[in-house]
């Protein structure tokens, strides 16, 4: 049969079991129909075949981001970005917020995202007084880059019914000054509650997910593991948007939410729906709970105190028995399970729960996961291997946050997002950006996994550096395995889905220190070219 598309003269990185490199491949419909040499592909070329000369450029399996927040990324594109180049200070941010207030009706939310106090000239958060000076007619919410901390104005506190007598929610802090007055700073679950109140309209959410999908495809991402947003509404919205093709990427959706994740998990588990329900475009993923906080906050739960604060061991959302009560039941009913666990104390608690669940209800191919697995000490890695856990580290984190990690965790950076250790110890791990917490570009993730340097050039746990091919596998085959999809995607092999990405150069020949400067030239999803940065050479 003649092919619809044939790629020739390329560096076809198959990511098969032998890490084979081919020079050409053929696509028929939505499947890969042949992989091999230019000569072998001549058989598949007909009068209607679109033949594309790659001119030595890399062609890879479509990237799989195994931990990303599509909805959160999308809605952030509708808000003020604190990561904009011109925002170098709190003063700059306040100017942008004031401009926003002048353009929207009174009563509507003013939102900002990506705030990082360490990147501001003042090295501080905006104050509630400064936000009130912008407007008390609009509720204002400035969310930190980690999405675990925010600062709000008085109007937002009123809408949340938070006053000076309000008590801290479980797993969170409503910060007060020495006089007992609210500062407007909300930490962990207090922030998550406010995020629910500051939710978006359905029309805004639909606009947001379309933007996110387009951005991901332009970055070569063809599949995502959606890590949660607003609970049941998120699930309904994503399914509708996929049906209408406003979302084009494939979704493996974790059953979890940013606020009260245990309630949502219990509801879905009791409904009878289980991991794997769905199709190649949208599938139900693992049941997920939050167990601790942000690595940059810092609010992660650690076994030893922070290097920057000897009295601080972080925040836990749940007790160990509470985690087991929810996820042990999900495991028993056939779910893949996972947790957000950054600190070694949180990781250890979860591993205890998994061990107990497997002892009570053994299951061979469970593929239970740990999202982030931030500080993975050797003893914890050994337990991951014994239990068959798949950690989902975040390769790009050291680039944006590495300098902060050294300040807060000292030598523990040598075990953070421990890709080298995982490979050497026979632990299969998959890569996720956690966007919008940091950049969603898989090429940046691959770059940092190889080089382990921060934006400033500082070495961040370089003992965890891996090879280019190993890093590619984090974002392809390993991601497919983490969602039980290795038979249909994650590598370039005959019969698999034609989800592909073309780069503008050879990723295997470019200087490893320049990987982040590579560009996606074309993204093919389901056999269809959905994006190309420049005109491809067609013969």
TrEMBL record:
GO molecular function annotations of the record: hydrolase activity, acting on carbon-nitrogen (but not peptide) bonds
CDD domains xrefs: YtcJ_like
InterPro entries xrefs: Amidohydro_3 (IPR013108), Metal-dep_hydrolase_composite (IPR011059), Metal_Hydrolase (IPR032466), YtcJ-like (IPR033932)
Any matching Pfam family: Amidohydro_3
Residue span, Amidohydrolase domain: 51-531
The protein, known as: Amidohydrolase
Source species: Peribacillus simplex
Upper classification of the organism: Bacteria, Bacillati, Bacillota, Bacilli, Bacillales
């Amino acid at each position: 049969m003649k092919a619809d598309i044939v790629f020739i003269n390329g560096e076809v990185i198959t990511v098969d079991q032998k890490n084979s490199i081919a020079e050409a491949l053929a696509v028929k419909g939505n499947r890969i129909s042949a992989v091999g040499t230019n000569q072998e592909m001549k058989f598949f070329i007909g009068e209607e075949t679109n033949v594309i000369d790659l001119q030595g450029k890399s062609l890879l399996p479509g990237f799989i981001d195994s931990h990303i927040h599509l909805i959160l990324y999308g809605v952030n594109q509708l808000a003020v970005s604190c990561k904009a180049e011109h925002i170098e200070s709190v003063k700059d941010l306040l100017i942008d917020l004031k401009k926003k207030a002048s353009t929207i009706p009174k009563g509507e939310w003013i939102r900002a995202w990506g705030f990082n106090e360490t990147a501001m000239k003042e090295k501080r958060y905006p104050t509630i007084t400064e936000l009130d000076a912008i407007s008390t007619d609009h509720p204002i919410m400035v969310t930190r880059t980690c999405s675990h901390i925010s600062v709000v104005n008085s109007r937002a506190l009123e809408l949340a019914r938070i006053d000076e007598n309000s008590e801290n929610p479980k797993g969170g802090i409503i910060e007060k000054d020495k006089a007992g007055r609210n500062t407007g700073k909300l930490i962990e679950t207090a922030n998550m509650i406010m995020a629910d109140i500051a939710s978006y309209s359905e029309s805004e959410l639909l606009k947001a997910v379309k933007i996110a999908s387009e951005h991901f495809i332009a970055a070569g991402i063809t599949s995502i593991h959606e890590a949660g947003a607003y609970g049941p509404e998120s699930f309904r919205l994503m399914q509708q948007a996929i049906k209408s093709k406003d979302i084009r990427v494939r979704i493996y959706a974790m059953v979890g939410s940013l606020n009260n994740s245990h309630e949502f998990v219990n509801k879905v588990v009791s409904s009878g729906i289980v991991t794997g329900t769905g199709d190649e475009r949208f599938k139900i993923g693992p049941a997920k709970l939050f167990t601790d906080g942000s690595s940059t906050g810092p609010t992660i739960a650690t076994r030893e105190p922070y290097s920057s604060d000897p009295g601080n061991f972080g925040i836990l959302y749940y007790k160990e028995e509470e985690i087991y009560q929810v996820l042990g039941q999900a495991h028993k009913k056939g779910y893949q399970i996972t947790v957000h666990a950054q600190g070694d104390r949180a990781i250890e608690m979860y591993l205890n729960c998994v061990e107990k669940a497997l002892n009570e209800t053994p299951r061979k191919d469970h593929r239970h996961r740990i999202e982030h697995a931030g500080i993975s000490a050797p003893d914890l890695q050994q337990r991951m291997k014994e239990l068959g856990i798949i950690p989902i580290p975040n390769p790009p984190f050291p680039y944006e946050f590495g300098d902060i990690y050294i300040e807060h965790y000292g030598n523990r950076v040598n075990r953070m997002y421990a890709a080298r250790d995982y490979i050497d110890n026979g632990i299969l791990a998959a890569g996720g950006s956690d966007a919008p917490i940091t950049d969603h570009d898989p090429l940046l993730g691959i770059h940092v996994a190889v080089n382990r340097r921060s934006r400033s050039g500082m070495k961040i746990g370089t003992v965890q550096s891996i090879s280019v091919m190993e890093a590619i596998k984090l974002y392809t085959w390993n991601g497919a395995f983490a969602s039980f999809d290795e038979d249909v995607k994650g590598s370039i092999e005959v019969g698999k889905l034609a989800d592909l990405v073309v780069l503008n150069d050879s990723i295997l020949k470019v200087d490893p220190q320049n990987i982040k400067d590579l560009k996606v030239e074309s993204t093919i999803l389901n056999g269809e070219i959905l994006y190309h940065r420049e005109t491809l050479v067609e013969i």
